Amino acid sequence: MMRGTSASAGIGIGKAVVVEETDLKIKKETIADPEAEKVRFQAAVKKAIEETEVLAKDLATRVGPKEAEILNGHLLLFSDMFLLGEIENIIAGESVNSEYAIENVCNTYADTFASMGDELMQQRATDMRDIKTRMQKILMGVSSVDIAALPEGSIIVAKDLTPSMTAGIDPAKVTGIVTELGGKTSHSAILARALEIPAVVALEGVLNKVTEGEDIVLDGSEGIVIVNPQKAVKEEYAAKREAFIKEKKELEEYIGKPTVTRDGVHIELVANIGKPADVEKVLQYDGEGVGLFRTEFLFMDRNSMPTEAEQYEAYRKVASAMNGKPVIIRTLDIGGDKEIPYMGLEKDENPFLGYRAIRFCLDRKEDVYKPQLRALLMASAFGNIRIMVPMVTCLEEYREAKALVEELKKELDAKGISYKKDIQVGIMVETAAASLMADVFAKEVDFFSIGTNDLTQYTMAVDRGNDKVSYLYSPLNPAVLRSIRHVIECGRKEGIMVGMCGEAASDPMLIPLLLAFGLNEFSMSASAILNARKLITGYSTRELQAVADKAMSFATTKEVEDYMKEFIRRS
Questions:
Q1: Is 490 one of the catalytic residues?
Q2: Residue 268: helix, strand or coil by DSSP?
Q3: Which of 106, 361, 490, 501 is catalytic?
């Protein structure tokens, strides 16, 4: 038995198909005619775009527009005149072959993204390497493995799968994916979940332990892979697979049901999204609103800032689609760790403690912040939009942002433009400072939304992208739990809504504690909503008080985790 990282839930049983891509040997060659070489490069880019468009269209038809957005992001990279211009400059300036120029430029970008530690940037690094390899293969006449042609009952075993490779998988033929590299939030993992293919990633050395055609059982929920399982083990996992499919079917029964605990406490169960197209999944899984719309995705993978009109249209679409349900939209959260070339941001030595989010926006009021706030206000005429300010550390930041909103309201009134007059403006509680001052903030803000990813990182002084200290990164750490409970208590005391939009909101071990603390709103990926509703409706908040008191009495993360695992097992 081998253990990796769970990337896509479910049980896979089948035969190993070892996928090993050709190791491209890129050599630097002197070119006699750089202009002809640039034409050769442009032809390769054109072909890569055509292939990607076909793949994106197929994925949108088979799975949905949200998943196709990943490949649409690749199309933007293939069309990025700044990126292509750098490659052509090297071809012309150094009289070198296209393959070498591509290697040079794309690796520089990918290495920069990978060094940032941010999950989103890691994905962009993978995307950059993906498009690099695809252009080079076209130039070198090397064919990629045809994953779409695999036999039924295949379990793919590979060093890694690029998003473009994963997008071509046929779920009717592939019953599982195992890779040496990758992570739970990688684009390949996201596509595997969308395709409903069980996947285990980050299983080091698996290619040395698996031979083509061997029997494999994998548990994507637990991150377990078993090579050549005994008959009894195979039968055990076949039964688990049937149970998993049955349970998934049963979750559909919770569509249309209210999210109310056994003792009558109503909970708002909403979703996190990054693009307007994501609303389809929110509606599919019966989300009661949007708890976090990450607007930075509108600014990325493009050559210039989205116009106020473009932003307005994106926000309006989401508000209209949710038809009066709450839509919390986070203002721009970028900074030193999220590089957007056209923004002119300097690289911070310590990006997570640097010039980012509200700090950046308040410094760029006229060209960045006001256009976004104005677009949000105008879009609020079409639904229940709420504005959320990220990365707040002091009351002055919130007051300044709120003052801008009031200023823009007066501008719109003067022009006779409609907007939601009583639009709420709240904050994302994700810093230790905001948590410690929650009692003060609660008297002025309209709502809290706890961002557990950063709150955990800042509370524990842990870079969540650093594997060497990842053992310290857990929302079940007693210090983090105390912080969360304090924020909720302060919000409830002042009568404001307190939500959570971090990954912890869908964690089965945390849900009982959050209910006991009095959390009003749980925001998560749309696909997690029905399972969360099932769990929440099975609990009584009164009965959970004793569970929370016991959990809060422990001094270590392990003690809390062990206790909650046992509680869930007995529930």
A1: no
A2: strand
A3: 501
